[in-house]
Each structure stands twice: as structure tokens, then as C-alpha cells.
Amino acid sequence: MVEGPLAQFEITTLIPITIGGHDVSFTNSSLFMALAVLGVMFFMVAGMRKGSLVPGRWQLCVEVCYEFVANMLHDAAGRDARKYFPFIFTLFMFILFANLLGLVPFVGFAFTSHIIVTFAMAIFVFVGVTLIGLAKHGFKFFNLFIPKGAPKALLPLLVVIEIVSYLTRPISLSVRLFANMVAGHTMLEVFGGFVVALGVFGVAPFAFIVVLISLELLVAVLQAYVFAILTCLYLNDALNLH
Amino acid sequence: MSMEKSSLEDLSARVKKARKNMVPEDRPALNDTQAYGMAMRLVAELLSGLFVGFVIGWFLDKWLGTKPWLLITFIFLGLCAGIFNVMRAAKQIEAAAARKRRQKTEGNEG
Amino acid sequence: MPQFDPAVFLPQIFWLVILFGLIYLFIAHSAAPKITRVLERRQDRIASDLEEAERMQTTAEQVRTDYDLAMKAARATAASMVAQKRNAIKAEMETEYNQLSGELAAEAALAEQKIIVARDKALDDIRAVSVDVCQDIIQTVSGLDLDEKIISVSVNSRFDMMKETANG
Questions:
Q1: What DSSP element (H or E) covers A18?
Q2: pLDDT by residue (tens digit) across A62-120?
């Protein structure tokens, strides 16, 4: 633990690759993305292998995830949003597996603790949702920025605030996931350092670490959920205005 | 005879119940977990409002050479936007809770 | 913090796009439709089973109604048969009773007649004897030879009184 609690977020190149002079090396982050992808694939393929009428335990897990996301999307964004279900489902499962893989002791690396990754996903959602809104409503989409029942004199100010508020979406979306993951992992690392440093007396911080890890498991699921539900709500704004 | 009758009525009740379960009831738009998720938004909402205001102000100042007035203005606007977003999220939580309460009382009456 | 080093941005975005795209394609074209199919199949199965159950319930209720009706009809038939039989027996008994009591009455009347005849005959005999006895007694006691007719008037009046009491 000489490197300090932030060393765990270090990117290490595994396979150096450059395309057109740009560095696109396969790193530990890429490795865990690949693991998350393989994990999700395995989870689903193995779970739905039989696709039986009466589901087994594993199949039930897959179905619960599916229905959870489907209900969330339907409740938050209505019937029209159905066709975006595969995307939301992918988003949720991908972030969930990323967060959980990050909690694997000693080797885990959560690429969701990298702002650029969460920001890339958030900006994709943001741009995508805005384009969907524009495609569906045309210029009426900008009604989104005009608050209802506001006094005329304040309207220009309110519209500017609404636009700024709209622009905060990708930031808040990405920062929330990023900050939660970084905070959790840093805490775990710090207390892990205590356990090692205290030797025999490290039992107390160890017990605390167990509690902390269960808390982090909850956060891992919750943040995947929050990312997905907010995407659904943004989608709802774009599809139905308000 | 009485046993036959009761078993027939039982069957009818069971079939009715199963039929009712088939039709997905109207779920509330936001449930408990969702309300909790909403609450998780609040802090990030406030901070990102400030951040976006700062960035917009910074670039506009640079572009228009009005340093530092637009920066100050937009930090203020960003703060307002953050507060708006927090209020909006709070309203959603409140609406979800109200819906929940209403549903509960309806359930009790029904 | 290593996260803010711009050097790590591009490779991560690059691989994120590729791998997220991969998992999206997998889910959108393989996993999600498969789960949808399974869920729909289950829903259909449940719906058809439920329909079957409802159909059978209707049949069962129909059978039950039929059974109730048949039972009711049978009970009514039985009741009417019992009543009919009872009436028949009652009528038969009545006629037999009437016949018997008629016969008995006739016999009784006949017997009564016989008794009356026998009694009258006995009375007449006693009267004749009484007249003779009276004549003899009077003759012996007073030496008077009373005419039979005088004595018979007196005796007859007594006997008429007796007959009246007997008949009355």
C-alpha cells in the first residue's frame, strides 16, 4: 500500500495499439470492459439456455433483470419508449456488471470510476435523447425549455436557466456514477490499508470492510439503476415533452 | 353435497383470482426504489449545475472578451438550474409518495 | 487522480464504443428477443390454461345446475307418487269400513228384531199363564168364579205398561 489509495485507478497498458498515430491500447480498463461484456453474455446465454416455461433459479435472475428494466422504462417513459428497451437494458446490465466486477477483491477494477467512461456514456445518452426528441417533435421540442405558467417578465431568464439545467444532465449523470464509485473504492482501499498496517489489531477495520463491501454492493446496483432510470426519465421528456 | 358446492365455489374464486393476476395492474409511475434513486440525484444535480454554469460562462467570456462578467452570471444561473433540478426531483419523489399513499388508502377501502 | 490524465481518455473511449456496441448488438438481436419470447410463451400458456379452467368451470356449473334440476324433478315425482298411493289406500280403507259397518248394522238390527219377537212371545205366554193363575187364586181364595175376560183386562193393562217400559 505504498502507492496510496488512488493507485487502484491507474490505467496500465496491456497491449499497446496505435491507429493513425492515436493511442488506443488495450488496457486494464479495456480488459474489464471486455469481462463485463463477456459476463453479461454468459449470464444471459447460460440463464436462457433452456428458456423453459417454468424458470430455474438462474433463468429467473435473468427474467427479473429484464422485467425490472422493462417495468422501469414503461413506468418512467410510457409505451412509446418500448423500442429503446434493448439500449436501456444493455446500459443497465453493462454498468451493473462493471460496478460488481470492480468489487472483486485484489484484482477488481471498476472502469465506471473513470470520468471519461461515465461521461462518454452520459453524453451518448444526452445526444441520443435530444436527437430523438428533435426527430419526434421538431421545433416543438424547444417547448421543453419554456416553463409553464411562468410570469412573462421572467421568461427569458427562466429559459436560460432551463437550458443550463438541460445541459447539466450529462454532467450530473456521469459525475454521480463516477463519484460514487471513486468514493467507495477509495474508502475500501484506505480501510484495507488499515487492516494491513494494524496486523492482529486489524480485525476491527476488517469487520468494517465487510460492512463497507456490502454497502458498496448496494451502491453498485443502485448506481446502475439510477443511471438507467434517469436515462428513462430523459427519454420521457424527449418523447412526451411536458 | 355441501362439500361439492364449496369446492365449486372455491374453483370459481381461484379462476377469478388467476384471471386478475393476468392483467397487469396500473403500476404507479414511480415506486419506492425509484423515489430513493431520485433522492440520490440531488447533490450531483446541484454541483453539476454550478459546474456547467462555470464552463459556459468561462467560454463565453473568452469568446466575447467580457471577463469575468458572464462567468459570474452563468455561475449564478447554473446554481439556479441546480436548485430547479433539485426541486423537480423532490417534486417527483413527493408525487410518487402521494401516489403510493393514495393507492394504499384505495386498497384499504376496496 | 489518474482519471483526469487526458492520455487515458482515447483508449478507454475507443474500447468502450467497441465493446458497448458489441454487447448492445448481442442483447438487441439475441438475448432480449429470446427473453421476450420465453415470457410471451409463458403468458400465452397461462392465458390458455386459464381459459381452459374457465371453460371447465362453466361446464361444471352447468352439470351442477342440471343435477339440481333433475334432483328437484325426481323429488317432486316421488312426492306426488306417495300422495297418490296414500289417497288410494285411504279410499280403499274407507269403502271397506263402510261395507263392514253396514253389515254389522244389518246383523245387529236382525238380532234386535229377533229379541223383540222372542220377548213379545214370552210376554204373551206369561200373560196367558198369569190370567190362568189369577183365576185359580181368586177361585180358591174367594170361591168366586170370575169371568176370564175381566181378569185379562186387568192383566193386559199391566203387561201393556211393562211392554211400554221395555220398549221405551
A1: strand A18-19
A2: 999 999 999 999 988 888 899 999 999 999 999 999 999 999 888 889 999 999 999 99
Angle formed by the axes of helices C9-26 and A85-102, nearest 10°:
130
Nearest to B18 among C43, C50, C64 (CB): C50
Cβ–Cβ contact C125 with B under 8 A: no
Q: How far is CA B78 from CA A175, C61, C102, in A?
A: 16, 70, 127
Q: Hey, is the C-beta of A241 within 8 angstroms of any chain B C-beta?
A: no
Backbone Cα Rg of chain A: 21
| Whole-angstrom distance, CA of residue A31 vs CA of residue A37 | 10
Q: What are phi and psi of A50, to 5 degrees?
A: -85, -35
Distance from CA of B19 to the nearest CA of C (A): 7
* B27 CB-side CA count, 13 A: 17
Are residues B77 and A164, on separate chains, in Cβ contact within 8 Å? yes
Binned average pLDDT, 10 residues per bin, chain C of 168 residues: 86 94 96 93 91 91 94 96 96 95 95 91 86 86 80 81 74
Contacts of A98 in chain C (CB under 8 A): none
State the cell numbers at B44.
450531483
